[in-house]
Amino acid sequence: MKARDTDWDGVRLHVVTGKGGTGKTTVAAALALALAAGGRKVLLVEVEGRQGVAQVFDLPPLPYEERKIAVAPGGGDVYALAVDPEEAMLEYLEMFYGMRRAGKALTKMGVVDFATTIAPGFRDVLVTGKTSEAVRRKGKDGRRVYDAVVLDAPPTGRITRFLNVTNEVAGLARVGPIKNHADLVNGVVSSPETAVHFVTLLEEMPVQETLDGLQELREAGLPPGGIFTNMVRESRLPASVLDAAAEDRFDPSELILGLKVAGLTDGGPAAVSVAEALTEEIAEHARRGELERRERATLNTSGRPRYELPLLADGVDLSGLYELAESIRTQGAA
């Protein structure tokens, strides 16, 4: 299928990270739907064991197997995989050593947990290795099985270490299958076929973590992607009102008159009390808007493509995911 003209032409692995609470999994799911639209096949992978993808799509917990979970607009398919490190270890042992039975015994003995405890980077190699294999996999016809893979990755603070698997296992194995496997993974995640996207909110801490994460990626030689600003709220008040409220120039008498004209109060003491409360709400709304403008300006210093996704009034459900996916497509991110 001919690739669409998007900001990420040629990218086949979309890694999605973000500070906790920013809606990282929701954005990853919406991005997978957007990429699959028009008849494409996309795999959505999660690696943290939270079953977040199942929750977002309102599904039972996902097993360690690739299964179809949604149909994208235009007939595309979204598959999902919840990577389990122990199962990935068994696959690894079978692939490189023909030791799946022995691997099951080792799992029962707790050796897998022991190995990944003394060498935490090895666990990341296992889960990123499964994702990289899906990116490279070809069918009998020689074509890629998936048009794109979306990885719901660990939070911003861990993302560089999680992806920089070659360095993480350098002290564990300098030669042999583990080293070769890590090099194969690194060949995918550090290539132009990969983009690491950040999810943020228009708040100081997630914005700063996003900028710090981008800098760490550059220093590690990993490919930065775009910035998805989630839960953006549109102001329904005129700019003149917001400016007046931010500068304490807003006149509550206008509210008192408006409440009386609307028949909500008689213009007496009750109207004054309601107007004062509304005036404080308007001032807080104006202050929030000013904060968001500053954070937008800060994000613009990153030089990365930016996309804004709306706050879903009814919360995140399946219809909300399709709404976000359409927004992502409209903005050229998929």
Automatic annotation (TrEMBL):
InterPro entries: ArsA/GET3_ATPase-like (IPR025723), ATPase_ArsA/GET3 (IPR016300), P-loop_NTPase (IPR027417)
Species per Swiss-Prot/TrEMBL record: Streptosporangium becharense
Annotated ranges, domain ArsA/GET3 Anion-transporting ATPase-like: 13-170
Protein name as annotated: Anion-transporting ArsA/GET3 family ATPase
One Gene Ontology MF term: ATP binding
